[in-house]
């Protein structure tokens, strides 16, 4: 069979429009395509490959578990799931864990739990969910409705009700909308897809205080920010605020599909047997790999290394900007970095992504005008230097 990009167009639903090249091999922060061309990976599978490609600890865990036990129904539990849940609860505010397969599923569980908690404790009228414009929480109909990007949720008929949005970092707008009918506020502790937008410290504390005032749950979507991405295991740990529910996925499995919802014992009791479930959620393969990822990521060396690498990226991007004057802002935390194009290049982020790929660097976008970098948390410094040199060559070609 001749497996090429043209065959993709023949056999796949056209909701994606991937690059012409097809990657076939990865090692660390380098990727090779079918033609043998090598790329430095600053995309990380959209903040997923937190230990790069084919990390030995992950390969070992997958191989060992693959020779033991792959799947059970949730009529049974399994050792890797219990171990991973224990490690997650020991390292966070949480006391209970629910496993799913993706960030959208973890968020779906979080939202259903919030609604069920409110119904049980306060009655059916307490059902309002508030989220933020430009937020992103997944592609199920519930999560895409809660996400604050109508382009993703419009066109599929009537949406789930009692969901409203305000602007991120606008505490006054949130306060005006909240009431005793609010059951939950859902937010990213750093907006990713919406342009890599950091929250004001007072905003986060204000959201927590408003949730307390109105007996509403605070849900942190840490699908992209979690598992070391910002230089702590979870971003909330640097904000001085605890959520009531937290969703995690992406880097949790380092590339193996897994998601989780974390919460407290008191809130968790409202998902009684039969109220929610997942066929694959918590399967031994996924949990064994995620446990191996956890053991590497949740160390001082890796987490402090993220902060050091952040500075290397930002310093070099600032140098590039001094030469070519393309960025309005370079922002983000840890290795979730956004470089916003200035007015001269407004709306052209994808052109830079394509040009970077031509030069052998894989980057992302976050909206039409923000170039996003989410590499491995342990990317070698020489790969940062090499990748950004290639990126600079791409910039020079576009600007020149």
UniProtKB/TrEMBL annotation:
What GO terms in the biological process aspect are recorded for it? L-arginine biosynthetic process
Known pathway: Amino-acid biosynthesis; L-arginine biosynthesis; N(2)-acetyl-L-ornithine from L-glutamate: step 4/4
Annotated positions binding pyridoxal 5'-phosphate: 103-104, 136, 221-224, 279
**Catalytic activity annotated for this protein?**
N(2)-acetyl-L-ornithine + 2-oxoglutarate = N-acetyl-L-glutamate 5-semialdehyde + L-glutamate
Binding note for cofactor: Binds 1 pyridoxal phosphate per subunit.
Q: Name one GO molecular function term.
A: pyridoxal phosphate binding
Q: Which Gene3D superfamilies match?
A: Aspartate Aminotransferase, domain 1, Type I PLP-dependent aspartate aminotransferase-like (Major domain)
Q: Kindly name one Pfam family recorded for this protein.
A: Aminotran_3
Q: Name one GO cellular component term.
A: cytoplasm
Which sequence ranges are marked TM in the entry?
none
The alphabetical list of record keywords is: Amino-acid biosynthesis, Aminotransferase, Arginine biosynthesis, Cytoplasm, Pyridoxal phosphate, Transferase
Location in the cell: Cytoplasm
Please tell me where N(2)-acetyl-L-ornithine binds in this chain: 139, 278
Q: Its Enzyme Commission number?
A: 2.6.1.11
PTM-bearing positions, type N6-(pyridoxal phosphate)lysine: 250
Q: Which cofactor does it need?
A: pyridoxal 5'-phosphate
From which domain of life does this come? Bacteria
Q: What miscellaneous comment appears in this entry?
A: May also have succinyldiaminopimelate aminotransferase activity, thus carrying out the corresponding step in lysine biosynthesis.
NCBIfam families in the cross-refs? arg_catab_astC, argD, PRK01278.1, PRK05093.1, PRK12381.1
Self-association state and partner proteins as the record states: Homodimer.
Q: Which family does it belong to?
A: Belongs to the class-III pyridoxal-phosphate-dependent aminotransferase family. ArgD subfamily.
Query: PANTHER family, alphabetically?
Result: AMINOTRANSFERASE CLASS III, SUCCINYLORNITHINE TRANSAMINASE
Q: What is this protein called?
A: Acetylornithine aminotransferase
Q: Identify the species of origin.
A: Pseudidiomarina donghaiensis
The root-end lineage is:
Bacteria, Pseudomonadati, Pseudomonadota, Gammaproteobacteria, Alteromonadales
Q: What gene is it encoded by? A: argD
């Amino acid at each position: 069979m001749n497996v090429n990009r043209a065959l993709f167009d023949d056999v796949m639903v056209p909701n994606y429009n991937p690059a012409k090249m097809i990657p076939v091999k990865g090692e660390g922060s380098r990727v090779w395509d079918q033609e043998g061309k090598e790329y430095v990976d600053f995309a990380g599978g959209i903040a997923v490959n937190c230990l790069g490609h084919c990390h030995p600890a992950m390969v070992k865990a997958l191989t060992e578990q693959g020779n033991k036990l792959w799947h059970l129904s949730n009529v049974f539990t399994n050792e890797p799931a219990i171990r991973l849940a224990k490690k997650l609860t020991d390292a966070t505010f949480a006391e209970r864990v629910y496993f799913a397969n993706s960030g959208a599923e973890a968020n779906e569980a979080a939202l259903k739990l919030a609604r069920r908690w409110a119904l049980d404790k306060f009655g059916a009228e307490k059902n309002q969910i508030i989220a933020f414009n430009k937020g992103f929480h997944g592609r199920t109909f519930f999560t895409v409705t809660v996400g604050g990007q109508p382009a993703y949720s419009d066109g599929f008929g009537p949406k789930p009700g009692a969901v409203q949005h305000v602007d991120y970092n606008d505490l006054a707008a949130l306060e005006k909308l909240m009431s005793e009918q609010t059951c939950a506020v859902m937010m990213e502790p750093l907006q990713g897809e919406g342009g890599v937008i950091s929250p004001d410290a007072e905003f986060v504390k204000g959201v927590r205080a408003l949730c307390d005032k109105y007996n509403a749950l605070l849900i942190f979507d840490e699908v992209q920010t979690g598992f070391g991405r910002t230089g702590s295991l979870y971003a909330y740990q640097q904000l001085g605020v605890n959520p009531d529910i937290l969703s995690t996925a992406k880097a949790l499995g380092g590339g193996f599909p897994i998601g989780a919802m974390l919460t407290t014992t008191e809130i968790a009791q409202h998902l009684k047997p039969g109220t929610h479930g997942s066929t694959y959620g918590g399967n031994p393969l996924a949990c064994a790999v995620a446990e191996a990822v956890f053991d590497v990521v949740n160390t001082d060396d890796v987490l402090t290394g993220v902060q050091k690498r952040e500075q290397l990226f930002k310093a070099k991007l600032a140098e590039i900007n001094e030469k070519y004057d393309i960025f309005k802002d370079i922002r983000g935390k840890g290795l979730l970095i956004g470089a916003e194009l200035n007015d001269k290049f407004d709306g052209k982020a994808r052109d830079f992504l394509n040009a970077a790929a031509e030069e052998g660097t894989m980057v992302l976008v976050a909206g039409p005008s923000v170039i996003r970098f989410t590499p491995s948390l342990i990317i070698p410094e020489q790969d940062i230097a090499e990748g950004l040199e290639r990126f600079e060559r791409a910039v020079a070609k576009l600007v020149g």
